[in-house]
Amino acid sequence: MNKSLLSSCVIGTLLLLSIPLAKYTTPTIRIADARPQIVLATAVPVHFSGWMEDTAQISAVVNPTTKAEIDKIYAQTLSRTYVNQRGERIMLSIAYGTDQSDNLAVHFPEGCYGGQGFAVGQTSHVSMNTVAGDIPTSRMVATLNNRNEPIMYWVVVGEHAVDDAWGLKKAKLRYAMKGMIPDATLVRVSSVTGDNAAGYRLEQEFVNEMLAAMTPAHRAHFSGIGR
Fold first, then answer.
1. Alpha-carbon span 17 to 138, nearest angstrom
2. What angle do CA 114, 124, 201 make, to 5 degrees?
3. Under a CB-based contact definition with an 8 Å cutoff, are residues 32 and 99 in contact?
4. What pLDDT digit, counting tens, does each position of 38-81 carry?
5. Distances (CA, A) of 145 to 105, 114, 119, 142
6. Where would I find the beta strands (DSSP E) of the chain?
7. What is the CB-side half-sphere exposure of residue 56 using CA atoms within 13 A?
8. 173: nearest Cα among 107, 104, 102, 222
9. Helix, coil or strand: residue 66
């Protein structure tokens, strides 16, 4: 049995076992309601450590889905392109949802880029060392015509960072068994380059410096570490 099939079977078993407890564990408490409100536009600095927002390049950030769909799933979104002193650019996209109910779960970049006509390569999972701690991330490369885009992302579900849909489902199930509905923040960074390894190194440098420039509370929110 392959890993994907085994994971699906495990999830199915857990959900079946939870049915008799449903009336006791139906999530009713939203974690977001008990936390200070997060405002993406101010929580993420526009300039730090030699990086600054390049407002002329905002169109470079891939819009993963329609505005109507975004508004349905997420409470807030943020899309920026940053440029450093060497002229290198990073595209940042953050989406925050206050309610991770089954019909409002975050959309992962693999499907979003594919829906935009990109060819999406295999996803790998890498632990990224940052000033906040080690963050589990997913990496993939999306290509369209002459555009080659190495992409890195992770999702903070409630108080835990995860790097794939399986991790998201497990986190949601743990919260559901406590009667809680977690919030979630999807953080995606990418660059346009023919050198994937160099792109990932630049993205890690960017993320580390971005987190270092945040307040401790915001650093914990976006990294999923230290809450």
1. 30
2. 100
3. yes
4. 899 999 999 999 999 998 866 566 665 555 556 666 778 899 99
5. 30, 13, 9, 10
6. 29-30, 47-48, 51-53, 76-83, 89-97, 119-120, 124-130, 133-144, 147-157, 160-162, 180-181, 184-190
7. 2
8. 102
9. coil
Q: What is the DSSP letter of 75?
A: S
Q: Reduced to 3 states, what is the DSSP secondary structure of residue 1?
A: coil
24, two tokens: 């006791």
> Whole-angstrom Cα distance, residue 184 to residue 103?
13
Beta carbons within 8 Å of 226's beta carbon, 6+ residues apart: 132, 133, 216, 219, 220
* Alpha-carbon span 192 to 89, nearest angstrom: 8
pTM of the complete model: 0.83
pLDDT of 119-137, one tens digit each? 999 999 999 999 999 999 9
User: By C-alpha distance, which of 139, 140, 136 is closest to 171?
Assistant: 136
- Beta-bridged to residue 78, according to DSSP, are 94
Number of CB atoms found within 10 A of residue 213's CB? 16
Q: What is the CA radius of gyration of the chain?
A: 18
